[in-house]
Design goal:
It is a single chain. The N and C termini lie far apart (about 45 Å). This protein folds into 2 domains: about 1-155, Aminopeptidase; about 155-315, 3-Layer(aba) Sandwich (Aminopeptidase). It has helices at about 10-15, 15-25, 35-45, 100-115, 135-145, 165-170, 175-190, 205-220, 230-245, 290-305; strands at about 1-5, 50, 55, 65, 70-75, 75-80, 95, 120-125, 155-160, 195, 250-255, 260-270, 270-280, 310-315. Strand 12 and strand 13 form a beta hairpin. The strands form 3 sheets. The chain has a 6-stranded mixed β-sheet with strand order 9-14-13-12-11-10. The chain has a 4-stranded antiparallel β-sheet with strand order 1-3-4-7, sandwiched between helices. The longest helix has 17 residues, at about 205-220. The protein has about 325 residues and is an alpha+beta fold.
Length: about 325
């Protein structure tokens, strides 16, 4: 394998087609490893960091692997991390490797990284799925080298969606099932509108509503919330524009009498819906706007044939 290093934004931008073609050929295929997600993340958060992307090409020049890394300084320590990591936005990060090429590609990447040891101090490879062949490779690396190795596990909430809404309701506990039905009945009887964003020109206004509702909810805890940071908003703006062009964005809201009571931001990729952020009007807690919108969204997703609802990292009451 021949290893190349990509260190400029121009080189990164030119990789879009090859990058996404490899995503589709990789067992690590996920929206969080697409060029659209990672380039949006880098444009928002890349300041003060250094691209450290490695490409593995075979003798014919075909791309067989990508190590999507960047270099960041933490005090005196130079950390190599996955693109997308460090801002609590991304899940399921990994090395991108063509199916059947894990052993030679990962071996080539780490041999190259050893040759560049003067340029970095530690690897911090967060969000690798437990099913990834990368973990087996890293454990083997620990056994045959003197590198220090630490692994921590993080839970993710995922549930499958059945073929029909009625089947889904039957999976809920009786009292909660009754509550969900009541919420949806209220949405309809009060002439509330369940809406899905379809017009890219409206994305910025929908995002502004999300920022406001999300921030208001955190204000109850006397905290600012994630959207107080400009970089977070820049990332969502860039990523939403890119995703809606690809048909991946699935942003929903519950609006009544011109007022948005709840908003949910997610995307569908490979038949899986990923919930990223949500917000609701704290003045309307008594009508359960969050549960209402989540139920309406799940019902809509089932009608579209989506088979999995992924809450992403962390297990909360919802």
């Amino acid at each position: 394998m021949r290893i190349e290093r990509i260190s400029t934004d121009k080189e990164f931008g030119a990789l879009e087609r090859e990058w996404n073609a490899l995503v589709q050929r990789s067992p690590a295929e996920t929206v969080f490893l697409t060029w659209e997600w990672l380039s949006s993340w880098w444009s928002a958060y890349g300041k003060g960091k250094e691209l450290f992307v490695l490409l593995a090409r075979d003798v014919s020049g075909e791309l067989q692997g990508i190590a999507p890394l960047y270099l960041e300084r933490s005090g005196r320590t130079r950390l190599l991390k996955f693109l997308g990591d460090g801002t609590y936005d991304s899940d399921y990060l990994d090395f991108l490797v063509a199916r059947g090429q894990a052993a030679p590609v990962l071996e080539a990447f780490f041999e190259h990284l050893k040759q560049l040891r003067k340029d970095w101090d530690a690897l911090q490879l967060n969000e690798i799925p437990e099913t990834s062949p990368t973990l087996e490779f890293l454990r083997g690396l620990r056994e045959r080298t003197r590198w220090l190795f630490r692994q921590e596990e993080a839970p993710c909430g995922v549930r499958s969606l059945p073929a029909t809404w009625e089947e889904f309701l039957q999976t809920l506990k009786p009292r909660f099932r009754t509550s969900v039905r009541a919420c949806l009945r209220n949405l309809e009887q009060w002439n509330g509108a369940f809406e899905v964003l379809t017009n890219g020109a409206e994305a910025s206004s929908w995002l502004s509503e999300l920022y406001e509702l999300h921030s208001d909810r955190w204000a109850l805890r006397q905290q600012s919330g994630v959207f107080a940071k400009q970089g977070k908003r820049e990332f969502y703006e860039a990523m939403a524009r890119s995703f809606i062009n690809r048909g991946w964005l699935h942003m929903t809201r519950w609006r009544m009498n011109g007022t948005v009571l709840a908003c949910q931001f997610g995307f569908v990729y490979g038949g899986t819906y990923h919930l990223l952020q949500e917000g609701f009007d704290t003045r309307c807690i008594h009508v359960s706007p969050g549960i209402t919108l989540r139920a309406a969204t799940i019902r809509d997703l089932i009608s579209r044939g989506v088979h999995t609802y992924d809450f992403l990292g962390g297990i909360g009451l919802h």
